[in-house]
Write a structure and sequence with these properties.
Largest interface: A-B, 100 and 93 residues
Strand content of chain A: 5-15%
Shape of chain B: globular
Number of strands of chain A: 4
Number of helices of chain B: 6
Distance between the termini of chain B: 25 Å
Oligomer: heterodimer
Distance between the termini of chain A: 27 Å
Order of helices and strands of chain B: HHHHHEEEEHEE
CATH topology of the largest domain in chain A: Nitrile Hydratase, Chain A
Number of helices of chain A: 13
Number of domains of chain A: 2
Radius of gyration of chain B: 20 Å
CATH topology of the largest domain in chain B: Cyclin A, domain 1
Strand content of chain B: 15-25%
Shape of chain A: globular
Number of strands of chain B: 6
CATH class of the largest domain in chain A: Alpha Beta
Number of domains of chain B: 2
CATH architecture of the largest domain in chain A: Alpha-Beta Complex
Largest sheet of chain A: 2 strands, parallel
CATH superfamily of the largest domain in chain A: Nitrile hydratase alpha /Thiocyanate hydrolase gamma
Radius of gyration of chain A: 21 Å
């Protein structure tokens, strides 16, 4: 949703106030015509487009255009980067790590002792995930990952972070009232469960190893990959027993 | 710098609002900003190229809060391109290269020998080790720092030595020390009650990753 991106809202103020040379430039006329065609999603939904600065898309297009004409970037290379994160690198990579740890106790041990090496075994290292620490949830301990200063997040295992992870409310509240935060995500932890919040302030990136839900004993590694969610690897959710499985997920 | 990006522990921002089936990019331009930021990085070599985090944190607080994530990235990237002289304000405005302007050339990386951001294979003595009691020094630098405000002056326990990393801090003009001051980074556990007083939960703790310069024995 558009309005969830820049809370508190008021992004139009940005256009008025823009400074730093990268100021409020007029929409370049030559780009006006084709921008509507490249606006990638359909308009038959209820987004409040008035909350979107009317010319940020045009300004970005002007920048790309001039950088291409100056020989500094290649639009096809940009397409490739976008495609990588839209279609190829995402939480499924992290789910493979988790599922492997659930079925292979030796891998789990390696993963918790040296996350970087063990994730490397599955080929899921890379930019913003060069140095990985994996923290395991247990019946006694629940882990939650945040970046209070910015948006640090393990790209190679989870992809790019969701808007809420980068938002002021999450960054502000996760460290001071983690139980309330988890409760808003629908996860009410018993009082005797210790909550550990990992603030990604340096170059190490964190992945939560969620508990394997009850009732999944008969599932294969491939089936388990399908039930591991992004949110469970950030630590704002548990992995639920799939419907049709036996009860005991204790959500 | 003590500004709005350092949000840990603040009140007043309201509820967290997760979006169901959120797309990676909400608009085409967001993906272009992300990709452009990655793609222009090599053009900064050998040029004045403002520090990523310093530049984001230098956005005035009211504006910072009013901008979406990729609007901040766009501001950061265009600041870099303008400061380095790779584009002009007119070019940014019109979308056309300035008439007669020479095409920029890629420069070789200036060979300062300065280490990068990753784990360094360097033999640097560690001042602290697991189970050591430490206090986060009461630092308030005007430049970029990775020591969040909420730990300053607070006592914690080292739980792990993550090895040697270059310090990412900058001076007040956004510049990093020439030798990058490689040093150990530690995972330090702070009990919630130590950080937040009575508001902290009894069975809650925050782990922050802190460079050795941020710490002193407690």
């Amino acid at each position: 949703m558009d309005e969830s991106e820049g809370r508190p809202v008021g992004r139009r103020g940005f256009i008025r106030d823009a400074a730093v040379g990268a100021a409020a430039f007029a929409a370049p006329g030559k780009l006006m015509a084709d921008e509507t065609e490249t606006h990638s999603h359909s308009h038959d939904h209820d987004h409040d487009h008035q909350d979107v600065p009317p010319d940020i898309a045009l300004r970005v297009r002007a920048l790309e255009s001039v950088l291409v004409e100056k020989g500094m970037v290649d639009s096809a290379a940009l397409d490739e980067i976008v495609d990588t994160y839209e279609n190829r690198i995402g939480p499924r990579n992290g789910a493979e790590v988790v599922a492997r740890a659930w079925v292979d106790s030796a891998y789990r041990e390696r993963l918790l002792a040296d996350g970087t090496a063990a994730i490397g075994e599955l080929g899921h290292l890379g930019g913003q995930g060069e140095h990985m620490k994996v923290v395991a949830n247990t019946p006694e301990v629940h882990n939650l990952v945040v970046c209070t200063l910015c948006s640090c997040y393990p790209w190679p295992t989870l992809g790019l972070p969701p808007v809420w992870y980068k938002s002021a409310p999450f960054r502000a509240r996760a460290v001071i009232e983690p139980r309330e935060v988890l409760s808003e995500f629908g996860l009410d932890l018993p009082e005797d469960v210790e909550v550990r919040v990992w603030d990604s302030t340096a170059e190490i990136r964190y992945l939560v190893l969620p508990e394997r839900p009850a009732g999944t004993e008969g599932m294969t590694e491939e089936e388990l990959v399908e039930i591991v969610t992004r949110d469970s690897m950030i630590g704002v959710a548990r992995v639920e027993t799939p419907s049709g499985g036996e009860p005991g997920g204790d959500a | 710098m003590n500004t709005i990006h350092d949000m840990g522990g603040m009140d007043g921002f309201g509820p967290i609002e997760p979006e169901e089936n959120e797309p990676v990019f909400h608009h085409r331009w967001e993906g272009r900003v992300y990709a452009l930021t990655r793609a222009v990085g090599r053009w900064g070599r050998g040029r004045e190229w403002p520090n990523f985090r310093y530049t984001l944190e230098s956005i005035p607080p009211a504006e910072y809060l009013s901008m979406s994530y990729y609007e901040r990235w766009f501001r950061m990237m265009t600041t870099r391109l303008l400061v380095s002289g790779l584009i002009s304000e007119t070019e940014l405005e019109t979308g056309y290269p300035d008439p007669g302007a020479p095409r920029p050339e890629l420069l070789p990386a200036s060979n300062t020998g300065a280490p990068g951001a990753g784990l360094l294979d360097m033999d640097v003595p560690a001042r602290f080790g697991p189970n050591d009691r430490v206090r986060a020094r009461n630092l308030h630098p005007r430049g970029h720092t990775r020591q969040p405000r909420y730990v300053r002056g607070r006592r914690g326990t080292v739980v792990e030595d993550y090895g040697v990393y270059a310090l990412q801090d900058t001076d007040e003009d956004g510049r990093r020390p020439a030798d990058r001051r490689p040093q150990h980074v530690y995972s330090v556990r702070f009990e919630a009650r130590e950080l937040w007083g009575e508001r902290g939960g009894a069975r809650e703790a925050v782990y922050a990753d802190l460079w050795e310069d941020y710490l002193e024995p407690a």
